[in-house]
Amino acid sequence: MVTGARAEAPFVLPGAREFAYAARDGAAYSLLVHIPETPPPAAGFPVITLVDGRALFAAAVMAMRLQSGRPGVTGVAPAVIVGVGYPGEALFDVGRRSGDLLPADGGADRFLATLLDEILPWVGRLAPLDATRRALAGHSYGGLFVLHALFARPEAFAAFIAGSPSIWRAADLLHAAETRFTAHHGDAQPRLLVTVGGDEQKRQAGDSPERAARRLMARMHDNAAGLAQRLSASGAAACTFTVFADENHISVIPAMLSRAVAFALRHTGTPGECSP
Question: Which residue among 43, 60, 62, 253 is buried most deeply as judged by most CB within 10 Å?
């Protein structure tokens, strides 16, 4: 009997593939796509689209596989997961994501159009997708982008998940978009999940004065909670606000993704329940 380790082999995420994608405007993206091995429902698979795909994709796929493996317990069925990222190995491409995810200079509008008019139809040629069960999720700048998408194209997705949205980064633009959205919303309420880590705004023992000042300036909890409460009061969105205790701006990501999967694939929370 031979003991010990054998030659190593690359770990492959079952059902996942990576594609190089060139948009019509010449922008290059890396698309990470997970397609369930089960037969699709008659209407097609639900689909969750993630921005910052390199950072979020693997955890979201594992959360979906775990939860959909016990549908009697979780109420979650298999779904297609699409991670939209950028060429290279960096989890977050700082320059590219700023141009795509922030509302300034029309960048978020352009990227949203690329998602809706190009990328999702292309993924639909790989596997049938249910157009009535689409979700969009993002973290930080990605969470801000999700809010922008909600206000600009509320009909485009059935569920929006804004994780730790960096509202401070474009507060005036976002507030103006929110005002237009609430003033002209229809009877249908998009579902919105807003999440934040419980430690994102608190001063930590090891904080430098500069870091502590940045936490106060960003107001991650207060901005997210205030937005969620306003949207709930307006009746424009069916909103859930969740604080993950003891999590910071980075450690909160897996918790957010696990909740995002449940929120997108089965309705969790009561519409209008936006208090921490």
Answer: 60
Structural domain boundaries of the chain?
16-265
Active site (catalytic) residues = 140, 200, 249
Evaluate if residue 228 carries a pLDDT over 60.
Answer: yes
Query: From CA 2, how far away is CA 217, in angstroms rounded?
Result: 60
Handedness of CA 255, 159, 149, 83 (dihedral sign): positive
- Tens-digit pLDDT profile for residues 137-163: 999 999 999 999 999 999 999 999 999
CATH architecture assigned to 16-265: 3-Layer(aba) Sandwich (3.40)
Q: Is the pLDDT of residue 268 over 80?
A: no
Indicate if the pLDDT at residue 126 is higher than 70.
yes
Per-residue pLDDT at 267 = 53
Provide the phi-psi class of 96: left if phi over 0, else alpha when psi is between -120 and 50, else beta.
Answer: alpha
